[in-house]
Amino acid sequence: MAPPRHRHRGFSRRIQYGLFFGYVAAATGVVAGIALVLIARFDPAAFEGIKGLALDVTTPVTRLTRPIVRGGGSLADDIGGYFGAVSENKRLHAELADARRGLIQARVLAFENARLKRTLKLVGEQSVPIVAARIVGSDLAGTRRFVTLAAGRADGVSPGQPVRAADGLVGRITEVGSHASRVVLVSDGGSAVPLRVVRTGEAALGEGRGDGAMEIHSTTVGGPGFRRGDLLVTSGVGGVYPPDLPVAVVTGTSGEIATGRPLAEPAKLDFAIVLPQAPAPPPVAPPQGHHH
């Protein structure tokens, strides 16, 4: 069914009006352009006035649009600055990570140098040290406490020799191979070390508990007893360990019995020094009778 004729006529009329006003606008623009050309040609002063008027009319529009344009430029700069800052931040983070790694390595080297200096000082303090060797293994199963040294019979090591580290007495040699040896620690369940309390001079006996600690027994009847923090050193009694080697510090007391923590902790040891066994005390001569 064909659409009503009046709707078609209305649609055509709108098109016709649009075309008409378009032609009028184009013609007006052409006439205005020709008029401006003629005015500029024959009356330059009037043309300058028209230009000034156009400037006055367009200035408010320019004032309103300038912040938008500048804002767009600033936004572009901000976006560029943001991505530039992200890149710079990544670069600085990478440099900081490198610096931290370098600092850690420097600290490790400083710690290693300090530890070696302490070990060398110990070697210098001993009269005739047997050998300074690296600790290459440990056995802490059950109540037994052992470490393995990378030095053996070929290096002059023999059973019974005491072993110490920078912090104190480690233990003594029990088994020896050609290039390795086993050390029983002072905290071993079967270890016993004659001790002396530095504060009082009281004699004591330290026995390993097999759990990393020592049990300290006073061997002096009616002595002053122990205090937390007392330093215990070897007494030299028995001829196994030389005297005055640091051994442990008292961590708890109960009457004439105390608990001690060995100063030389196996988990923190890298090197140890094998010392010559203390000479046996000279035999006591029997008293001689008087001859009549």
Structure description:
The chain is an alpha+beta fold and 292 residues long. The chain has a domain at 131-274: Thrombin, subunit H, CATH 2.40.10. 41% of the residues lie in helices and 24% in strands. It has two helices and twelve strands. It has helices at residues 5-42, 44-125; strands spanning 131-139, 146-149, 162-164, 169-176, 181-185, 192-197, 203-208, 214-218, 231-234, 246-254, 257-262, 271-274. The chain has a six-stranded antiparallel barrel with strand order 1-2-5-4-3-12. A hairpin with a 5-residue loop joins strand 7 and strand 8 (214-218). The model is unreliable at 6-10 (pLDDT under 50).
CATH topology tier name of the domain at 131-274: Thrombin, subunit H
What is the number of E strands?
A: 12
The CATH architecture of the domain at 131-274 = Beta Barrel
Adjacency order of strands in the biggest sheet: 1-2-5-4-3-12
How many distinct helices?
2
Using only C-alpha atoms, the radius of gyration works out to: 50 Å
First-last Cα distance: 169 Å
Q: Which H/E pattern describes the elements? A: HHEEEEEEEEEEEE
- Which blocks of ≥5 consecutive residues have pLDDT under 50? 6-10
Structural class: alpha+beta
Beta-strand residue percentage: 15-25%
Helix content: 40-55%
Task: Let me know the average pLDDT.
Answer: 77
> How is the main sheet built?
6 strands, antiparallel, barrel
- Describe the global form: rod-shaped
Under CATH at level 1, the class of the domain at 131-274 stands as Mainly Beta
